[in-house]
Amino acid sequence: MDTVSQAALGAAVGVAVMGRHRPFWQAALAGAVVGTLPDLDVFIDQGDAVNNMVLHRAETHAFFWQLLASVPIAYLLALATRSTRLFRRWWLMATLGLFTHAILDGLTIYGTQLALPFSDHPFGLGSLFIIDPLYTLPLLLGLLCTAMCRSQNRRRWNGLGLALSTLYAGWAVGAQAHVTQRVMATPEAEGLSASQVLVTPTPFNTVLWRIVLRHEGSYQEGFYSLLDPLKAPGRPIRFTRHDRGGGLEAVTQDYPKANQVRAFSKGFYALSDDGRYVSISDLRMGQHPYYAFSFRFAEHRSPLRGIDPQRIARRMPLEPGLAWLWQRALGEDVTPPAPENG
């Protein structure tokens, strides 16, 4: 998730664990710092653009390494606040602050390597978008009310914020399961396994969901709003088919950088060739033709040869993109904005 969400979650966990044992501001600040620590790995250059993607959310997000790191972090917090007698409570706060960060990231589609060093599998449930105000606002409001309230039970507001944000995350998981069930019943998904179907929320909400059906040489993309049955009962999900560059598979199967993206994306990728460069896109993040992670990894130089991967990001125009998102979430059958170059 985004930094604001992780800091808010960490602060809420800090206040909940430390309770009346430490001042509110101190527990909230310490929790916010701990809650954002795992994402400091973005400042580590892993050598190239593909590694920077694949190795983000790795060791710093793995439960095993977090558990080990929680001990010195707790000791430093206890020293800094002159409360070494509360070491065990600081340790619990540090552990929960790190663990909840990793779990929240695991609810997004990106891929979080929770089980390192025992497995490098990138866990990504895909139930929450990386920025979702409806998850973050209850945490922020709970903290704000706790800070402003003067009663002895003021920390209940923080607990309420934590409870509401957790319930919202649970709602997102349930909504995703509902949409997935709806998708699997469509003719387009007939014969596909669960590993070939991707259902993720569109930006900033859990009402409108993006669907990708992965086939051998192509993929189909569609959108489903939870309000569709109210707006147009019986309207089928409209899918658009796009090429995955199947003809490039044989000639690029020995390119390590392409294979890293193939594995990390769990097969949800597309290859393309513009006549000069061969590129690979992770289909899980973004929507056609705007993908957050696309990389040039080879160029035509008689014969095709590998190059240092270059990240290329094509962003949807903001104003028409938000207008489409709002309309489609409300159940209107509108098509996404076309690329500016047509």
Characterise this structure.
This protein is of the alpha+beta class and 342 residues long. It folds into two domains: 3-174, no CATH class; 186-329, no CATH class. The chain is 43% helix and 16% strand. The protein has eleven helices and ten strands. The protein has helices at 3-18, 24-36, 49-54, 63-80, 87-106, 133-148, 155-184, 228-231, 249-252, 256-264, 318-329, and strands spanning 197-201, 208-214, 218-225, 239-243, 269-273, 277-282, 286-287, 290-291, 294-300, 304-312. Strands 1-2-3-4 form a four-stranded antiparallel beta sheet. Strands 5-6-9-10 form a four-stranded antiparallel beta sheet, with helices on one face. It has a two-stranded antiparallel sheet with strand order 7-8. A hairpin with a 2-residue loop joins strand 7 and strand 8 (290-291). Helix 1 crosses helix 2, helix 1 crosses helix 6 (133-148) and helix 6 (133-148) packs antiparallel against helix 7 (155-184). The model has no long low-confidence stretch (mean pLDDT 94).
How does the SSE layout of this entry go?
Blueprint: H1 3-18, H2 24-36, H3 49-54, H4 63-80, H5 87-106, H6 133-148, H7 155-184, E1 197-201, E2 208-214, E3 218-225, H8 228-231, E4 239-243, H9 249-252, H10 256-264, E5 269-273, E6 277-282, E7 286-287, E8 290-291, E9 294-300, E10 304-312, H11 318-329
Antiparallel strand pairs: 1-2, 2-3, 3-4, 5-6, 6-9, 7-8, 9-10
Helix pairs in contact: 1-2, 1-5, 1-6, 1-7, 2-5, 4-5, 6-7
